[in-house]
Amino acid sequence: MRNNRNSYLIKNTIIFTIGNLGSKFITFFLIPLYTNALTTSEYGVVDLIATVGTVAIPLLTLNICESVMRFALDRNTDKKQITKIGTYILLISAIIGLGIIPLCTFFDKIANYSIYVYLYVISLAASQLYLCDLRGKELLIYYSVGNILHTFLIAAFNIIYLVVLDHGIEGYLSAFILSNLITATYAIVVGKSYNSFTSHGINKHLLKDMTKYSVVLIPNSFMWWIMNSLDRIMVSSMVGISANGIYAVSYKLPTLVSTLTGIFNQAWSYSAIREEGAKDEAEYNNSIFRKLTGIVTLIGIGLILFSKPFLRFYVAKEYYDAWKYIPFLTVGFVYLTLATFVATSYTVHKDSFGYLFSGMFGAIFNIILNLLLIPSIKVYGAAIATCISYVLVFIFRIIHTRKYIKYSIINKEFLFGSTFLVASSIVVFIDNYIGKLLQISIFVAAIFVFSDIWMPIMEKIIHIKKED
Question: What pTM, to 2 d.p., does this model score?
Fold first, then answer.
């Protein structure tokens, strides 16, 4: 049983790693292209448009992609009906979404790009929906290939539009629109979603259940938008659009934490659904949680250590100040990773209200902290507000999910990991050889303390390579 469950988790993790890690790294290394092809103001504008998309998509589509994925994972479900319902809501969204065009005229920064914003939102919604459809059908290899294809197309089209044609913001958005549409088409073909288009009628009971589950997640998505993106809008208005461009770059390294561990969390959600009701469910979940804690804090410490030297060659010099905000964001994203793992209990039990309450809790504190801190300490205030909000969400979920699984944080991995992480984020501001020596010492100590976690993983990888 244990070998089967571990094999299933490892297999899914590998598949998600291939798709997500490949696509995310392509995106990560596109930043030098963006920062050299776009001014800080232009990059602030495209980041603002992406932020608008983050809000608009769940509102327009009722967050239906979440239901498409989750309901398809249940046994003995009508997957054609689930896909058909998703498509039906997407088409309605495309019509209602036309209202985005006149709405954009009220915002000076994006008024000239209203049509692009509409096409960006709808095309991204389509690609998300049909990629989620692949996940729900457990066509995970096709899903991973779709992620890589999507990012490869973004890279290719951006090189054409930004470097070759020098089309600026319009070129950047065109690259994303075309990539979204091609990826959606790919997912429809390989997932045979087109078979659902010809089926007659819609199961109204299923439509009601799916929308009931996903609609509750709309305010949750909005709350996460507040924690992830509202600070950027506030920085743009209170400090300046150029400052937002720099702040947007500072997110890139910390998001690697959630990217790397998010791959595992995606795979874990499938295992968690399978493990529901097992006799040792709580013990097994806690075992995985401790291992994840050790790995994610080690990654976070490493990113803080290498952030300054890396940014020297990674971005144009006017973006280098982004390192100042990375420590706060990294700590936040580490706790966000742990909060995401704990929240798997909500997915298993279809408890969308759990997502809503925890998101609302973090968002309220985020707004208050941004309003208090940004006027006085500028961009630092936004980074600190984000960090504290993520930590609070983690605490909320640890307490709130005890009705499903009791997670323990009184262990070596959490206590030592948190201590090392906070210490590293403080000493990075000691800008001399003493500070560097302290950072290296913390990193080495963390490697030693968590050797019982990462060494077995390395041994398994080496063993696999030898067998190959």
Answer: 0.72
Which of 178, 176, 151, 163 is closest to 27 using CA atoms? 151
Token pair recorded at residue 205: 């009971």
Find the distance separating the first CA and the last CA of the chain, reported in whole Å. 25
For residues 366 and 81, what is the distance between their CA atoms, to the nearest angstrom? Answer: 39
- Give the count of beta carbons closer than 10 Å to the beta carbon of residue 440: 13
Mean pLDDT lowest among 129-133, 305-309, 356-360: 356-360
In a domain, 5, yes or no: no
Whole-angstrom distance, CA of residue 261 vs CA of residue 331:
14
Tell me the HSE value of 237 on the side-chain side, using a 13 A CA sphere: 9
Place of tokens 């958005």: 173
Q: How far apart are CA 434 and CA 455, in angstroms?
A: 29
SS3 state of residue 424: helix
Confidence label for 179 from pLDDT (cuts 50, 70 and 90): very high
172 and 265 housed in the same domain = no
DSSP string for residues in 38-50: S-HHHHHHHHHHH
pLDDT by residue (tens digit) across 41-63? Answer: 777 778 778 877 877 888 889 88
Pair 95, 48 in one domain: yes
The reply to whether 300 and 415 lie within a common domain is yes
Give the range of the structural domain holding residue 121, as residue numbers without chain letter. Answer: 18-202
Is the separation of the CB atoms in 365 and 387 below 8 Å? no
